[in-house]
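User: Before I run my own analysis I want an independent prediction to cross-check against. Here's the chain; please return only the C-alpha cells and, at the end, one sentence I can use as a sanity check.
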Amino acid sequence: MQSKLNFYDVLHPCPQTKGIDVVSTLQHFAIVTYAVHPSRLEHLLPKRFKLDTVEIEGETKALLSVVPFYDLDFRPALLNFPKLSMGQTNYRIYVVDTKTGEKVVWFIGTTLDSWSTVVPAWVWKLPWYRGKIDFDCNYDEKRKLYRDYSMTTTSDWAPAHLKLTQEENIPFVLEGFTDEESALAFLTHPLTGYYHRRDTKVGTYAVWHERLQVKPAKLISAHFELLSRMNILTQKEQQHPHSVLVQAETEFTIFLPPKIVRK
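Assistant: C-alpha cells:
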C-alpha cells in the first residue's frame, strides 16, 4: 500500500518562466492507468530509477499511464504567439528517482501530431514520434461530462484507439492507495520526467500545473499497439485499466530546453 500523500506537499507556485519555456491549454486531457506486473517494466529503467509500486489484492503492481490530450495553443511563455495546435499522447511509468527520493515519471515515448516533432525528436533527441491524432468528443458543458470521448492515432510507432464515456456520480475507484487524495496526488501530479534519448543518454524536463480537477470515466475500448508490441499489456488486458481520469481543459507550463542527466 502506498503511503499517504497530500496535495499540500506537492503543490507549489509556478517557477519563473524564461527563455524558450512554453505554456499550453490542454483539451480532452485523459489519464488511462494500468496496473502492471513489475517484471514487464523493470528492464526499461536505468539503475537510478525504481518502480513506484502499489499493492492490489495482495500483489505488487507497477503503474503505467497513457495520457492523450489536444494542445490547443502551444506557445512561448513570454509571448502570446506563435501558437500551435496538435494532438499528443504520452506513455509514462510511475517511478522513484533513488538519487533524490522524488516521485517522477519515466517516459517510454510520445506521439505528436505536428511538423514541429522535428525539434524535440532531432534537436533535443527526445523519444517523440510523428502520428496523426484525431479527437471526436461530445462534451456536455452543462453537466461537465463527456457523453462520448474518442481518440484515434495513426502512427508507425504507436497506433492507438481509445473510447471513453462519463456518467453522473461515477465513483473514484483507485486501488492500492490509502485514500482518494493520495491516489490523485500520485497519478496526476508528478512534475518531472525522465527518458532515454535517441542517443541512449538519459534526459529530463519539467512541467508545472495547478491541481488537476479530474473526474473518473468509464473505458469502452482501448487499443494501444505500443503496449502490445512491447509485451507490457495484451489487448485483452488493455480493456481493464486501474483507473480512467478525464479533465476537459487545463493549462501546463513546460520548462525548456530538456537537459541531459549527468551521472
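Sanity check: Residues 18 and 78 are 7 Å apart (CA to CA).
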